[in-house]
Design goal:
Number of helices of chain A: 11
Radius of gyration of chain B: 15 Å
Largest interface: A-B, 43 and 36 residues
CATH architecture of the largest domain in chain A: 3-Layer(aba) Sandwich
Distance between the termini of chain A: 28 Å
Shape of chain A: globular
Number of domains of chain B: 2
Number of strands of chain B: 0
Radius of gyration of chain A: 18 Å
Helix content of chain A: 40-55%
CATH topology of the largest domain in chain A: Rossmann fold
Structural class of chain B: mainly alpha
Oligomer: heterodimer
Order of helices and strands of chain A: EHEHEHHEHHEHHEHEHEH
Number of strands of chain A: 8
Chain lengths: 262, 131
């Protein structure tokens, strides 16, 4: 199976481990990520204003590119997943945005939300299957106590992103189990890390990530995993005495599949 | 502050947000869910009432505009689909679309950057805080 792949700005720079291991593990799992040509940054946050068109066009271009190739579009970064899925929903369901975006783009054929957008974790769950993933594991994680940090962008708004139950998600826990780890469920796993506030108000995001660390370690987690480079950055700034190491989900996947040296 | 009437501004905020604040039943779930609640002068549930009362100028002067994290907890949990976060963002848009009102300028960036900072953070902040 070949998927169109949208890496996004940060996976080419600060989050290379998210990108590299996603690609290498895909090969082991029997699918391929084909990077779309000339992709442009999604903008990091979904433009909420109903009259904002220009800021959605980079997503529309990527979506249309995947449509032309007849492929589903895969993202690994939580933010790209969020922005592109929501823009796709607009193109499918919001006539005003669809019309104006298409007037601007002038594709050969108007784009109307035909592409399916999948997060890499959704590919693992819904296409590969966690049972098949489990069979491919060569270095099981030996019961390591791992807390899934979902944050905001993977889950909400659930009606649109349709990723998992927004209040009681299980996809990353099932992923951890498939790799032989022990998932630790803790209350703050779907609470915000502060997101972009950490640029201007470091104390505020600091308090937020400290609460996340305290919550996770209090429930017995010994490490956290995330799919978001900004969550990773913010969590690593925690000054809590309970601060835990944070990894990208692709890193533990690569360890379990023998792609990454342990 | 502007020659535009409050009624026009109220219409504009409803248009940009695509939200109908009159559906609000004042349950307070948005404020109870908001991770920035303590930082806000006008709380998410109050934000909805301000729009209903046509008091948009007060919203545009509110420090809450810079505190919303776009985490969508209020949007997810609103039982009436009012989506308070979209109202906050619409008020923020109305402010920063005015000349000289950007909440973040490129000149401020060098002091804020560190080695580990992901591009995603700069992109997201500029999208939210400036035109």
């Amino acid at each position: 199976m070949v998927y169109s792949y949208y890496p996004g700005c940060t996976l080419k720079t600060k989050a290379k481990d998210l990108d590299k291991y996603a690609r290498e593990c895909a090969k082991v799992l029997g699918f391929e990520l084909e990077e779309i040509e000339n992709w442009q940054c999604c903008g990091g946050v979904y433009p909420l204003g109903s009259d904002e068109i220009a800021s959605k066009l980079s997503s529309v271009r990527a979506l249309n590119e995947a449509k032309t190739k007849g492929q589903d579009l895969v993202t690994v970064c939580s933010a790209c997943h969020h922005v592109i899925k929501r823009t796709n929903d607009d193109m499918k369901n919001v006539e005003d945005i669809r019309t104006r975006a298409n007037n601007y783009m002038e594709f050969k054929e108007p784009y109307a939300g035909e592409t399916t957008v999948l997060h890499y974790l959704e590919v693992l769950r819904d296409k590969v299957g966690f049972d098949v993933l489990k069979e491919k594991v060569v270095n099981p994680l030996n019961g390591r106590k791992i807390g899934a940090y979902y944050g905001c962008l993977l889950l909400r708004p659930s009606k649109i992103v349709q990723f998992d139950d927004p209040e009681n998600p299980s996809i990353i826990e099932d992923f951890i189990k498939a790799l032989g780890g022990t998932p630790v469920i803790y209350p703050y796993r779907n609470e915000c890390c502060g997101g972009y506030i950490s640029l201007k108000e470091k104390e505020m995001s600091g308090r937020m990530v400290d609460r996340i660390m305290d919550s996770a370690s209090g429930f017995g987690a010994e490490e956290l995993i995330t799919a978001c480079p900004l969550c990773m950055y913010n969590l690593n700034k925690s000054e809590s005495a309970n601060k835990l190491p944070v990894h990208y989900f692709t890193e533990i996947l690569a360890e379990a599949l023998g792609v990454k040296e342990v | 502050m502007s020659s535009v009437s409050n009624a026009e501004m109220t219409n504009k905020i409803r248009e940009i947000s695509g939200s109908n604040p009159q559906k609000c039943m004042k349950c307070g779930k948005c404020s109870a869910s908001c991770p920035s609640f303590n930082e806000m002068d006008i709380k998410p549930h109050q934000f909805v009432s301000y729009v209903n009362d046509g008091n948009v100028e007060a919203l545009m002067a509110s420090k809450s505009l810079g505190k919303c994290l776009s985490c969508f907890a209020c949007v997810e949990r609103c039982p009436r689909d009012v989506k308070p976060g979209k109202l906050v963002d619409a008020a923020r848009q109305m402010l920063i679309r005015q000349q000289g009102q950007a909440m973040l300028t490129p000149e401020e960036i060098p002091e804020m950057v560190d080695e580990a900072m992901p591009q995603q953070l700069l992109m997201s902040a500029f999208r939210r805080y400036s035109r």
